[in-house]
């Protein structure tokens, strides 16, 4: 009995189409370019919504060194700012952070997707430990490329706007003045603390996020996750990372205003000072692309 002949297409299938079809049971990979675009958009939206919490956090961290302190707490800081400058006062320094938040989120998620695509197992799954390492790499990358200069300018700008005679007329004028008086190094004050802070922050966050995603998906790596569930996972991961690296955030802020490292480390030696702004950071949502 003759067998039916197998049809062979005379047309060559493009390699890109062949690669796009993921084998059954293998997770679909996210292109780093897509993560960069989505991360940039999410970062811009995030900072426009949450900047008042960032402003209050920075003011409280800087006020710890005042004698006597200017603010009695979060509510008093908000009240004094609104009384003195109106609601717009809570957005002073927004431009410095907005210009940096878009590339920061883009670098973070782009680098994470690039590293995670390289570190997945044969089935395309990323375990929690590798998620931690990818998050660490993403955090270090964003710290060096974007976060340190952006945060230094932001802290200096907010600190300047709170003084009796502000010397910076805007973001670009502030950058020019900092570079002119302190050189390019002036925008990289506190680099070590920033790298440690961002690296540990993203390592913890992506570790928790990856663990939760793997738990939710179970044996089906392509199982869809509801956006609300993703948001809940992201909020929990962000809260865990806040408690994990708030001390480094306080040290970083102090070092970006003052050039003497030893004084900052001594001043920040008491543990209760480290966690002074935890509650402010906890109410600040974080973007998640999962």
UniProtKB/TrEMBL annotation:
Q: Which GO BP annotation is one of this protein's?
A: mitochondrial citrate transmembrane transport
Q: Name one Pfam family in it.
A: Mito_carr
Which keywords label this protein?
Antiport, Membrane, Mitochondrion, Mitochondrion inner membrane, Repeat, Transmembrane, Transmembrane helix, Transport
Q: What is its main location?
A: mitochondrion
Q: Which reaction does it catalyse?
A: citrate(out) + (S)-malate(in) = citrate(in) + (S)-malate(out); trans-aconitate(in) + citrate(out) = trans-aconitate(out) + citrate(in); citrate(out) + succinate(in) = citrate(in) + succinate(out); phosphoenolpyruvate(in) + citrate(out) = phosphoenolpyruvate(out) + citrate(in)
Where does the source fall among the domains of life?
Eukaryota
Subcellular location(s) of the protein: Mitochondrion inner membrane
**Entry GO terms, CC:** mitochondrial inner membrane
Membrane-protein topology = Multi-pass membrane protein
- Sample GO molecular function, one term: citrate secondary active transmembrane transporter activity
Q: What does this protein do?
A: Mitochondrial electroneutral antiporter that exports citrate from the mitochondria into the cytosol in exchange for malate. Also able to mediate the exchange of citrate for isocitrate, phosphoenolpyruvate, cis-aconitate and to a lesser extent trans-aconitate, maleate and succinate. In the cytoplasm, citrate plays important roles in fatty acid and sterol synthesis, regulation of glycolysis, protein acetylation, and other physiopathological processes.
**What family is this protein classified in?**
Belongs to the mitochondrial carrier (TC 2.A.29) family.
**UniProt name for this protein:** Solute carrier family 25 member 1
């Amino acid at each position: 009995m003759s067998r039916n002949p197998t049809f062979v297409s005379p047309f060559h299938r493009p390699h890109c189409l062949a690669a796009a079809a993921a084998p059954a049971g293998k997770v679909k990979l996210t292109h780093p370019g897509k993560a960069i675009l989505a991360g940039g958009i999410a970062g811009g939206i995030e900072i426009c919504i949450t900047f008042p919490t960032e402003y209050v956090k920075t003011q409280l961290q800087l006020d710890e060194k005042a004698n006597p302190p200017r603010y009695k707490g979060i509510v008093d800081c908000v009240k004094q700012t609104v009384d003195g400058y109106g609601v717009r006062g809570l957005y002073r320094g927004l431009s410095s952070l907005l210009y940096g938040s878009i590339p920061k989120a883009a670098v973070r998620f782009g680098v994470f997707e690039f590293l995670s695509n390289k570190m997945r197992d044969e089935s395309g799954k990323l375990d929690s430990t590798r998620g931690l390492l990818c998050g660490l790499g993403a955090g270090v990358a964003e710290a060096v490329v974007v976060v340190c200069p952006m945060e230094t300018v932001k802290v200096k700008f907010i600190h300047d706007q709170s003084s009796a005679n502000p010397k910076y007329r805007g973001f670009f004028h502030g950058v020019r003045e900092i570079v002119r008086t302190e050189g390019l190094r002036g925008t990289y004050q506190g680099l070590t603390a920033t790298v440690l802070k961002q690296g540990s922050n993203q390592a913890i966050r992506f570790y928790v996020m990856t663990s939760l995603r793997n738990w939710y998906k179970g044996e089906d790596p392509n199982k869809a996750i509801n956006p609300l569930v993703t948001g809940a996972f992201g909020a929990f991961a962000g809260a865990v990372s806040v408690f994990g690296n708030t001390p480094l955030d306080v040290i970083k802020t102090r070092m970006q205003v003052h050039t003497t490292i030893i004084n900052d480390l001594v001043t920040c030696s008491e543990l209760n000072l480290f966690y002074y702004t935890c509650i402010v950071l906890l109410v600040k949502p974080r973007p998640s692309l999962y």
